């Protein structure tokens, strides 16, 4: 949340601030110190935290400073231009501006820019730009005219874009108001690109103030127009080649931040990527205000009334805002924490007459996102702001959903499908959730009535809206199970977060029992199954690695001795790893089961119902997955969205817990159990080794401490400095 | 500035006693801490947690409970079955009352502070009325089956909760009868433990009773119905202590695993008025059992077997993020346990029941900064002096010449004469001590070892002359009429003419020993020296002001009057008054020798505070002679090594 802190008033007694305000406030090479140039003859060097001037310099009577003084960040010197052409450079030690370095230039200077990291740059009134050093080498050098005679520079800013200086300036045609051009000057290589600012519909407005920020590719130019709105234009930093006279469109960013009819000047400055500060009267009759707006959420963050009036100028450096308030140069420290939605919901401006203005505190997200009637908006307030005009969707008289629900009751499957597709293509309404639920319920209801009716495609489409859950349509899975529609079941398992354990288990039973041939014919989503059989070819490599379990080579481990049969045929084990015990289609279905959520206690009783052969098959598959996992260092399986190691392990444990007594009696499961036993044993030994290592490390640490401790008594030499 | 040979002593084998109870007093912002050896210490939380007062321990007096009542009165009760009140002015025990119920396990003062309740071994709960001078037995509550380990009053004073073994009873104070008996589950993670001990109970104003027990549970009971409302299993070991904040919006429990858990009453949902207790923060600042906890408005205070007193400020209650918001760990007493004889290079160590005398070693070598010099003679243990009786030693001192040792317990004063013949040492107790010299709060010898100053706990100061192995009483400075404030600090001027004494209320008395007069300077009215005025004017360096440990010792350089040596537990500092004071821009602490800088720069950056943080934790430091320092350190690891092993927690596997 952005906050304005307690203001500091700097006395301007020494400043001859006229009605036009100050010429400029510029930072110096010291964080807390600033150069303030008035519209007359004086430059004052302020230290803000001390609220006092450190130095003050004036030009002679009769001379007028025409360009705000800046500080060169490279040399720490101050630079000012008076009488348009005379450049002065001095530093803190100098007392009299008359006696300091002077250079008379051949053309009139508009501004001098100085920022951290580069030398100061001089912008001439005719648009030419020179580096200060180059200019001082030959002050009388010829300065070319870049802009046409009728154009006048209105505003300019200097940036560093990834260590390259970039200068932007805006010109306006003097005769025809409202014709603006933006020029972007790059240095080494020196390129100048010109853009025409298109004002769009608000053709008649006059731009009152500009501000800009920059990222890697674009200069974001914000303008405050006389209608009180802020517009944004994006100007590319690097010119796209070729095109001459490119055009830049501007778009509305914030509506009516200041009163449109304000006579006095208003000002705008970007604070960070989400916040702007605006100076001006918020309502036609009200006093001037400094307001901070969040442009991302389009809310007013904070505001401060400035009853004594301002000069309509605003500067922002570091974390402080400067403005002329009454007779004082006012400094307001500004802080902004990271934007959050809650923070951005903003606060209402302390309006003086709460009776007359019932302004909503924040944007109504419900209405502004979805189908928002435009009339309501204008009535509520001008202060409801939107970045873009949302396209107003045309609402048919009868809601499509009602029509669809009617169709479901009687139409043919084909027809319903077409209608449904139309409906889903429509814009999603806030109550879309419930409508989808209603449709599914309608479809399922008809399914129950007519056994032949099974709108498979419709249901699949509806599931894929990600709007459904088991609790919303419990009948759906029931029907899919009834029809053994494994494809639908897989989809449901993937999409529904809340399938009961009993249903999961029934699915598992179907997945394990369905025969391979029929599975091959079904189009099943196989993305969780990376081609497991591929690896069968690099058997050689596998033999080298052997079965490495968490870095433990089973060959060396003595637990192998308990299984001489396996020990003799290590190939057998590798054989088991290389070939997947199930076909890929079944693997994909089983993976869907592995991914589904469950809680152990509820799942266990259902697992007991699975026939022993199927349990063995599933265990073999899980063991195969585990071996695949343990083959790479990260312990993951290849492919998109594969089962994780912990899912695999949990299911192995669950299956064994539920069916151990059965499985242990089966001869074909013997090898599998042996392997699992070995694996567990190796895990235990890993942990016990870890505990041993911990103890050894502790002993080492002790030894280390003893080495460092100096014994009970010593005499040492100490030198105090 | 100064090059010193430092005798770095680590053979002071001091083990602080474990902390048994803490009691926080909100009115004075003071904390009473009792230790397993019966010592009771008073810390002033407003004054940088300085240990202001201390009552010596007693072998037979193990405190099991400590509480403040009637505002500023401090009571303790223990396994010898006595309730003790402490005199916070005279620093002695006011009286002891036997409760006649066997060992006392718990005690609590009523919310109004006018009554005391004790829980005894025989299952009785006894109510005592606190009178201005003493306490009087009022009546017994219904006798329970087994010992009462914990007690808590309802804030209205009408009911109490008593934790026993396997159950919690709720009593009606008026009738004294138990209205509910709430059985605590013995089961611990499915295994039935032998017994479930209710280590702590807390009665909240809404009628909830919170209990902590040996099965690792924190349970919430409804005292109106006697039913269990909620249970949190928080530890694999005992939860031994509980303390509730005054606002009843948070409480703290301590476990035998060394963990302290903070529970807070938070709304169930934001903007909801319904609140529930949630375990919010665990803190692991202890290695051993947390025997006791307290909850001040801004901090959680815990102490236990590992002897640290830990004060953990609650960040949400601290408004300014300064050093007050930092965690404090207080391990060592702030009083002096070590004295040194400069002439003979002896160190006298004070333990609870004995004194040790050591002679420092010597070296002939020299070296540069940081070198450890080879010893030509090692340090030598000369004497082990055991006191008789169950009382702990209060204070001790060795004379600068090394031929006198004085020490005192709560009831006896000892003075010994040491004679050195070559390598032999003989010790003789000085008999015929005056009868009034029974107990001393502080003992000091004059610089020439000819005079002995004894501050008794009645506020009087005795001056004696030491001549040819005998003690002759010279004079007694009586306290000012009406005050019985004990003098806890003594200092004597090098010529022996002036004696300064300070009590607990920050006044300093200066006595002229020659003319036997008393001058009193209260701190604000004192004539400060020019230097101290400059310091006041310019202010201390900000880092100096941010230090959070109290200075425990100050001494002056005997040859260079401009030098002041002072130290706390983590650093020592020599202040050279002739050098300019540091301002906030200068580096206060510069551990490395200036290398590249020229002499001019060095001279310009030199300032009055010369700080060294090499020796820590530093218990004692003094100048032996011009170029020799003695520093006594007590590394924490050495203390931990001598504690019983903590509960082991497995890191890998399950």
Explained architecture:
Among the domains of chain A are: 400-499; 584-683, no CATH class. Chain A has 20 helices and 31 strands. Chain A has 721 residues and is α+β, with helices and mostly antiparallel strands. In chain A, helix 10 runs parallel beside helix 16 (584-595) and helix 11 (501-513) runs antiparallel to helix 16 (584-595). In chain A, the strands form seven sheets. Chain A has an eight-stranded mixed sheet with strand order 14-15-16-17-21-20-19-18, with no helix packed on it. In chain A, strands 1, 2, 26, 27 and 28 form a five-stranded antiparallel sheet that branches. A four-stranded antiparallel sheet of chain A has the order 3-4-5-6, with no helix packed on it. Helix content of chain A is 31%, strand content 26%. By secondary structure, chain B is mainly β. Chain B has a four-stranded antiparallel sheet with strand order 2-3-4-5, with no helix packed on it. Chain B has a four-stranded antiparallel sheet with strand order 6-7-8-9, with no helix packed on it. A four-stranded antiparallel sheet of chain B has the order 10-11-12-13, with no helix packed on it. In chain B, a hairpin with a 5-residue loop joins strand 37 and strand 38. The chains are: A alpha+beta (721), B mainly beta (654). Chain A binds chain B through residues 684, 687-688, 690-691, 694, 705, 709-721, and chain B through 1-11, 361-363, 366-373, 375, 378-379, 574, 590, 593-594, 602, 606, 610, 612, 614, 629, 635, 637, 650-653. Strand 31 of chain A pairs antiparallel with strand 1 of chain B. Chain A: One of its GO terms (cellular component) is t-UTP complex. Chain A: Keywords: Activator, Nucleus, rRNA processing, Transcription, Transcription regulation. Chain A: Residues 1-335 form the Nucleolar protein 11 N-terminal domain. Chain A: Residues 402-721 form the Nucleolar protein 11 C-terminal domain. Chain A: It is found in: Nucleus, Nucleolus.
